[in-house]
User: Fold these one by one.
Assistant:
Number 1:
Amino acid sequence: MKPIEFSPARPFPLINDDEHTYQEAQEHSVVVDEWLGFKTAEVEKALITSEAYNVQADENIPVNFWRGLPVQALQTPYTEIRQILEILKPQSGEHIVDLGCGYGRMAFVVGLHYPEVKFTGYELVEERVEEGNRILKKFNYPLSEIKTQDLTDRAFTPVEADYYFIFDFGSAPAVDKTLEDLKSIAKTRSIQVVARGRYIRHRIFQSHPWLSEINEPQVYDHFTIFKS
């Protein structure tokens, strides 16, 4: 296989999984991050020694800040994001929410290829949100925003949307709290949930039949699409 070539005219290419390896997708994402101007390595290095993330807001729902991991382990490759969006085919006026968005990679793919679709990203770590918004300001994507938010906050419920993207972001209680929030939203409207990672998918199949058994899920190597 050939490495994924980067082009400023085509920064988020739509390519099939069998045309590249996962490592090549990650390597391509490193180049895209550099082109966009991200300084994620500096941010993550500072987070390791930060005292601000040593306290749990709710001892009953453990929170994982995912500090000390390689940046590429925290984020979905741009090519995979593009693939997911191509499958979903969001329409003008619809809304995508990323629950645990990291630096907000999806905001840039949505902004470029789906400019009439609204994007909201929630991320627990404020420094990541600030860095994502710093880069986002360079582009004219008025429908995209990244917000600092603890998803485990009992007073918080995600905004109503058409699509929700969830990566493996925490403990079983944390994941269950978010899925119960989505269950409440699904009582009034149909939603699609893109679950990325083994744990979140296992949890949905194991404990959330309202999402896994109503409609046949679309299963892919790295993610599964559920529809309420």
Note: The mean pLDDT is 90.
Number 2:
Amino acid sequence: MKIFKKAFDFYLEGSIHVALSCFALVQITQHYFSISNDYPMAYFAFFGAIVGYNFVKYEALARAKKVQMKNKLKAIAILSFLSLWAVGFYFFQLERITQIVSVGFFILTLLYALPFFSNRKNARNWAGVKIYIVALCWVGVTVVLPVLNADVSLTSDFYIKCIQRFILIFVLILIFEIIDLAKDDPHLQTVPQQIGVNRTKKLGFLLLALFFGLNFFSFIIDVNFEYSSFIIATITALFLAFANEKRSKYYTSFWVESVPILWWLMLLIL
């Protein structure tokens, strides 16, 4: 049982689960825009998420030398290095425009993690900004890059899907911010810190209604997509409703981050 728990914790702490969620959202985008067999883009997003998230989570600790490189961290470092190699491999299989835009999102990730300015604060420590940067990066990697790489026309449906994806990621992050309310620095000015938990939940419910409602403005009619997006909005609303500071780390790091994976599986079944 301990071995299973250690393996499961490594799966979560090594960002494999969140990377699978990223992979799932790319697949959802490709499904909606009828993009077939663009596996390099999906794998680029998967391995890029492992590298990006592990860099953000462990870079500051390694730079400050606050933790020793125990076996688990060494394994995560090896996983990240191998993933970085995979990112480079798939990067050169992407279209030129996709490569250029992906470098832009890479720079945004560096800005998020590293202190570039004189106040020595990175973007994730800027008051009230973190949630928007993370949501924007997810939209870029899971919607913008797949569409650009497949040379799909940027119609109104593309912009609607960008807004929908931003809303979904935004609400999922709200759940994280509610769970982490007691641990977050008050200077971060997260949404729950600014408006309170109850208003944050009401905001999330309103955004999820908008998330689903935007389907009716799309020109591409995909009944399965609309049906599954309603279920996902409902499931996310339930996670939001039951979110509180006493929930375990698995509530967000596994269950909440499983929402995109569940959406992808629903589309595969449907």
Note: The mean pLDDT is 88.
